[in-house]
Amino acid sequence: MSLINNKEQEFIKKIADAMHNKEIADKTHFLENTEDQESSCWIKREKVKEKMDSFVVEYDFNNPMELQECLNNMWNKFYDDEMKEFTLVCSVAAFKNRQLKEEEQPISTFVYEF
Amino acid sequence: MNVLGISALYHDSAAVLCGDGEILAAAQEERFTRKKADASFPRNAIKYCLSRMKEGEKLDAIVYYDNPFLTLDRWLKNCVIVSPNNHKIIEKSFDSIFGKRLWIHDFMKDIAGTESRILVCEHHVSHAASAFYPSPFEEAAIITMDGVGEWATTTISVGKKQEIQILEQLNYPDSLGLLYSAFTYFCGFKVNFGEYKLMGLAPYGEPVYYNKIVDHLINVEEDGSFKLNMNYFAFMQDEVMTDERFKDLFGIKRRIPEDVITKPYMDLAASIQKVTEEIVIKIARHARKITNMKNVVLAGGIALNCVANGLLLREKIFEQLWIQPAAGDAGGALGAALYTSYNYFNCNRMINKTDSQKGSYLGPEFSNRVIEEYLIKKGCKYNYYKDDELFDVIAGYLCENKVIGVLDGRMEFGPRALGGRSIIANPMSGEMQSKLNLKIKYRESFRPFAPSVLKERTKDYFDIDVESPYMLLVAPVKKELREESNEYSPKDDESGVIDLLDVINKKRSSIPAVTHVDYSARIQTVDEMRNPYYYNIIKSFEKVSGCGVIVNTSFNVRGEPIVCTPEDAYLCFMRTDMDVLVMENFVLLKEQQDKFVDGEDWRKIYELD
Q1: Model confidence pTM above 0.90
Q2: What is the mean pLDDT of residues B167-195?
Q3: Contact A41 B39 (CB under 8 A)
């Protein structure tokens, strides 16, 4: 029985689970914690900078195709082709759940929202 | 060029307006909505900021302090990593990410004109910019440390004139902020609200769990980089911070909020504080080495750990230190606006050696005329004093050990009250700490109060040789002022049950109300340039009492945001046992006021934080 009620959430879980089970890469690849030297966990930023145009970028999309293009462009820059499996479900999820008005929400008691 | 920076949808929403790189206005949304750490889109703060734009000018850009696509990338990869135990994390964050954060441009377009650019800025760049650009340095090392932005949790950068270059970073889940929050949670305080309470609790304990932390929870390298052992933490897959193994490691259960604080939790607080300080120092040493800079600036939530900041200052790894007063997420709005001004629009950075942050007095102000209109409408009994009398009157009340709420000038930006929206009192009174805690702040007894000291008198009271205008540095009270007979030792009581009220109320110095159990104090140095009104209050008090220090605590009750308007100030005044309310040149005495009929039970409005 699914632990998730929402269709898009289910799809995300399915893709994530399939990706986890595939032996496609060392999981640390995803977390970018590759170490260049011994006894240090610092990640040199030059590597990341190559993948980004700038620290400040224009941000806009108006339809699912534009959103998909944005996501695919990002994952192209990261050489993360596998992540494009999420592109379609993310665009559907975004347009189905778009909140046009701010709703009053209580602050979670112990949850770190990040 | 007018640039509006926004932080929202995590915690502590804010808006900041910069004009050609100058900070014109800044405010946190919570101050308007009266909802602590309000995370909603900051419409009210934006409205205020835009009201400060010069007439006839247009908004050139709105910039959000986080890149939603990069955050989505991190969140999805998190789901992959913790699979198949990812259903909770998917359900918890789904609406926020797909319903709001990806749609941040929708919110921004509501405000923007057709000519305004809609931009996003990387989270830690926003923090870095908030630390570097308002600082008085042309060049500096920049260290940012928080829970997490998109991916980065810690960065080391170099700032030169208007350029910022990130050199190295640590990525999620290896996060000092999340580590500290895990202990905050475990000790029964609210995550994102209670971290500074954990810091305040630390001096009561001993770091007996230090070895357990560094042996099991975190592996720290000599260069300050670290990795968390995720077997003990649950935040990657759950709504809670810690795993069952965390509890088993320390042999105690998570403390239930509002329960009595026993010694093991004090010891946990002391232990994690020691670990945090060591990491901060190691990171600083590493930053000095790789940047070759003599100055350093800090931002990110960890930079609010003023005990660690004080230690960093005393270590003298760098020659000079500057910390962004709004070091948390609210300051990200400021950094995003500044970074965009200088790097997207290429505004010229004019370095202000005095204070680009303008004392962090960046919020709304209320004229005497507006205040008097309000007082008349409410039927208040008040007196008006001209400047040449006002400060002597206030000083007189301080000498009588009255508790005084002060609203003057522009509201502060950042978590600290700096005399614009403060409750002040006589620090020499032995009972003042207890009085303020129980009758005014309605808060836990172990938390100390902080001093505001005349800048020129700082060295008479505290062992610190730099200014501290933003209350971000902790330093010891001078030995000559201490009463060593009341020195506190955690070892005194082996039963595990310590009466914190009894401990904190022992007189430890000639300024007991602001002296913590370990003789430390979180200092604000006050100078005439930044806030002449507040300076004059303390100066007048010094004239009659000889003491150049007063107690400064934020003008609010527990759970409430710091007051913003005369109405907020009046309500807080009437709902508590405060004796005097001062709003600009108007003074109200509690005993003169009519009986107050409260339209609502404020204890139900303000959730305990």
Answers
A1: yes
A2: 95
A3: no
